[in-house]
Amino acid sequence: LQGSSLEEKQDCIVGLELVLSLAAQTLDAEAQQRLQHTVLERTLRRLDTTGDALAEKASQELLVPSSDSGRTVASCTQPLRAVLALLLRCVGEDRVTARDLLELTRE
């Protein structure tokens, strides 16, 4: 992920998920598969520290909300939901089990 700040990386993740969503509607299956493979290799495999930082930020915003932030649960968790959507799009819904998702939360 490119970007020097967490906010920039967060925007990249959300934007990338939107691109894959549009690609699913417009590209043929082979092109979608190539794009998903590229995202998996270049983005999701390098997400460890950024993913942890996104989870920490969402937790802080949800548990200790700022009175003037106007943030909702949906806006606080959008980057994490985008990571999950990317994972499901790139790996395949049929290959990620509930147990796999729970394991992600334990690490």
Structure, explained:
The protein is an all-alpha fold. About 75% of the residues lie in helices and about 0% in strands. It has helices spanning about 5-25, 30-40, 50-65, 75-90, 100-105. Helix 1 (about 5-25) packs across helix 4, helix 2 (about 30-40) crosses helix 4 (about 75-90) and helix 3 packs antiparallel against helix 4. The radius of gyration is 15 Å and the shape is globular.
Distance between the termini: 21 Å
| Largest beta-sheet details | none
- Category by helix and strand content: mainly alpha
Strand coverage percent:
under 5%
Enumerate how many helices there are, as a single number. 5
Number of DSSP E strands: 0
The rough form would be described as globular
Helix content: over 70%
Question: In sequence order, what are the helices and strands, one letter per element?
Answer: HHHHH
How many whole angstroms does the radius of gyration measure? Answer: 15 Å
